[in-house]
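Action item from last week, closing it out:
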Amino acid sequence: MEQRLVFSPGQSGRGVIERPPFSRDLLSERLRHHRPGLRRSPGAAPSRRGDDDLNPGMNISASPRPAAVLVGLVEREDGFTVLLTRRTDHLQHHAGQVSFPGGRIEEKDATPSQAALRETEEEIGLHRSHIDLIGRLDDYITGTGFCVTPLVGLIRPPFDLTPDPFEVAEVFEVPLAFLLDPANHQLCEKEVKGSLKRYFAMPYGRHYIWGATAGILMNLYEVLR
């Protein structure tokens, strides 16, 4: 079954929603006040995000492998952008998909933050001296068995990138304003192994941003709106 668009606010004809520009201070303040994993009520399980949010009954691993990614906000003269990568087609997990730089948390990583910074440097050659971490989003559980901790960081240009050709096919940036505009948020579905799977998508030019990456960006949208 081909992908089917379930809902797109952009189809309503509202056009682009104007948003005031973000500053370093405003972004830092919004992220500082976000508390990932808060319990909705006494005795309830800590909140988290995951592929099963849109797919009730999806089989999610009870002990997912820990991972961390950098949600990097680049400070450009005409506004912030989000730094993204496209994974190479031969990787075992999420091959060819748009993702944040990051990967598994290893024993040598004392914290998820250290893992995200290490993986970012290894994958795309961005040194941590260019990155100011300002907060984190909710953990995201993927259907492939990972618990991803997204760390949000401000990236100061200029910087040089040296992507690892084994893991990274491309590095690109998307305007933050585009990703925060509800008109660009889509809910889609397609058949996967005989079952319908729903997921968020944010197509940008020739780049199809979807799945866990779009789910994490939806969390960023909720925190910053």
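Closing note: Residues 11-18 have pLDDT under 50 and may be disordered.
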